[in-house]
Amino acid sequence: MMENNILFDELKNIFADKILNNFTHKDLLAIDINGKDIHLVCEKLKNSEIIYFNYLTAISGVDYLNYSIKQKERFAVIYIFYNIDIKTQLKIRAFVPENDLHIPSITDLFMGANWLEREVYDMFGVIFDNHPDLKRILMPDYYEYHPLRKDYPLKGKGERVNFPKYQAIEVDIEKRK
Amino acid sequence: MMGNTNIDNINNANTKETQNTDISLYNYDIDISPDENGYTYMNIGPSHPATHGTLRMKAKLDGEKIIEVEPEIGFLHSGFEKLGEHHTYNQWIVTTDRMNYLSPLNNNIGYALAVEELLEIEVPERASYIRVILAEISRIADHFLCQAFFGLDLGAFTALLWGFVERERIYDIIEYVTGTRLTTSYTRIGGLAMDLPEGFEKKILEVCDKLESGVKEIEKLFNKNKIFLDRVCNIGYLSKEDAINFGASGPIMRASGVEYDIRTHKPYAIYDKLDFNVITNNYCDCYGRYLVRWGEVRESIKIIRQAVEKMPKGPVNFGNSKIIQPDKKSTYTDMESLIHHFKVLMTGPTHGINPKKGEYYSSTEAPNGELGWHIISDGEASAYRIAVRSPSLMHFQIIPHIIKNHHLSDFVAIVGSMNVIAGELDR
User: Fold this and answer.
1) Would residue B90 count as lying in a domain?
2) B345-370 pLDDT, tens digit each
3) In sequence order, which residues have a C-beta less than 8 Å from that of residue B204 and are 6 or more positions away?
4) Lesser CB count within 10 Å: N end or C end of chain A?
5) Does B15 lie at the interface with A, CB-CB under 8 angstroms?
6) Inter-chain contact A57–B242, Cβ cutoff 8 Å?
7) For residue A89, which of A44, A24, A144 has the smallest C-alpha distance?
């Protein structure tokens, strides 16, 4: 298990100019970066020789709208990596500005990121560039809002009362093919 | 990915969105004869007797051989994470029961540990021993059910009944301790809801002996059975590099040769004082996962016996009254205890458990894999954001990758060995 200060020195060697901030809570080291750099950072981490973080544990999104400490941007995507051989964990917070909700996808490096990024898109509206199949995963396809944002109320916006109503019509099978 | 295929057209083609009309029954005229390449499209729908829960898979078949599968989830989505921002920390324990409903005690214990690590407190030793014993017994229950349904899907009905007989014994123990069979909600932040009743140690040691013989009986049905081996060996091959790349964990990872168990990598709650092995093998297919699960049941029985022997006496709740309520008897004579009984439950800027502002990720070893909790706190009685890392979501992504060029009857074996539970998948 690598100590946090040794780990941070190694990270600074690899990409010193991308790190905006860092903090630790107990034994988990967290780094803040801009959202645009995440693909570069993950690639370098995966191919590094000493700290090769090749196991993606989790991706989740956060909406810092009502948080009491002002953060850099409104949205952040949180990546948690792990190294099985040296048993060390690393957390990366990638900030995404509200007026430009785009962040590169890391599906080509980690295949497990596919559905996790779809869930962040579904719940927060963050768009992942170069994702193979970005569409909603938990909510229905015709849903308009992004539920886990802080300005979406807990009880919803009346969807339980106004389900869309369908009517069966005749279909020409030849035309459909 | 399949994208815009005939299956999606089936969804949208027959319908037209209108206002103020009655909902008519769908009138499908689906043509299921093969198309020009010889492929048929089949929908293995959300309500199906062979899928474990509400999972939908759109399959592209060439006769009986599977070319491609595209899964669709979200039929059981209940907004647990959104509720976590409005409930207090203790109130949300109730929703953790409903995630992996086969082993609810593991979820309770994992969440309570995550909040305690955010607060940077440690529960007394007796509470840790009790949590370990209950976590292991509910892990045994989950594995019995997984193996029983694995046998049922392949056609062996006896395995299901024998597996459930053992599970009833475990349900009796859980009811003796917590009061309910399924939605236990036994832990609290800073300790447990109540101490163990009398006679628990004797009962659980008896049950452990019977569980060991139960494992042997079901193994006699399957381990050397030619029909079972033909249906299960070399099916669903997941190599070591793919398992790491996909983020698999738990028995699936350990059957592919990677020794990753959170109980030994980052020990929590007195696992470092107990002596047990981590079962791995190199088969990488459904048979390997089946063997790993039985090995884990035997190791869990070993852990329970050691923990029952070493368990000390003492208090069960953390001493600080601002985090967990004091003993009920002291409220009859002591004014501060009575005040704290109210203050811990109320919501507001100075009431309740108010952790410092910060964020932390912690995980425990659930029967399915790594169950993780990323909690952000804003200094209030309810969390700012709770994000759950569910193992079933990572495992269900693997199925389209390993199912290529298998037959339709192998599909059932693969879905059964992945142990996907819909409550944890959709949250």
Assistant:
1) yes
2) 887 777 778 888 889 999 999 999 99
3) B133, B137, B173, B304, B308
4) C
5) yes
6) no
7) A24
Name which CATH class applies to A4-176. Answer: alpha beta
Q: Is A14 on the interface with B (CB under 8 A)?
A: no
Domain identity same for B128 and B47: no
- Cβ contact (<8 Å) for B247 and A56? yes
Instruction: Give a yes or no: residue B388 inside a domain.
Output: yes
Domain extents for chain A? Answer: 4-176
Shared domain for B58 and B202, answered yes or no, is: no
The model's confidence at residue A175, banded by pLDDT at 50, 70 and 90, is low
Instruction: List the beta bridge partners of residue A77.
Output: A61, A94
- Nearest Cα of chain B lies from the Cα of A153 at a distance, in angstroms, of 9
With contact defined as beta carbons under 8 Å apart, do A44 and A100 qualify? no
Q: What percent of chain B has pLDDT over 70?
A: 93
How many A×B Cβ pairs under 8 Å? 136
B53 and B133 in a single domain? The answer is: no
Domain count, chain B: 2
Q: Which residues pair with B68 in a beta bridge?
A: B60
Cα–Cα distance measured from residue B81 to residue B318, given in angstroms and rounded to the nearest whole number? 27
Q: pTM surpassing 0.80?
A: yes
Q: Is residue B376 part of a domain?
A: yes
Dmax (CA) of chain A: 68
Summarize pLDDT for A18-71 with one digit per residue, the tens. 777 888 888 888 889 988 888 988 888 888 888 888 899 999 999 998 888 888
C-beta atoms of A171 and B245 within 8 A: no
DSSP B101: T
CA distance B137 to chain A (A): 26
The whole-number pLDDT of residue A168 equals 60
**What CA–CA distance (Å, rounded) separates B389 from B265?**
18
For an interface test with A, the pick among B6, B11, B19, B23 (most A C-beta atoms closer than 10 Å) comes out as: B23
Domain span at residue B178?
Answer: 80-320+347-426
The answer to whether residues B301 and B372 belong to one domain is: yes
Q: What is the mean pLDDT of each run of 10 residues along chain B (427 residues)?
A: 48 46 47 76 82 85 88 90 90 91 92 91 91 93 92 89 92 92 90 89 92 92 90 90 91 91 90 91 91 93 92 86 80 85 79 85 92 91 91 92 88 89 89
Do B94 and B62 reside in the same domain of the chain? no
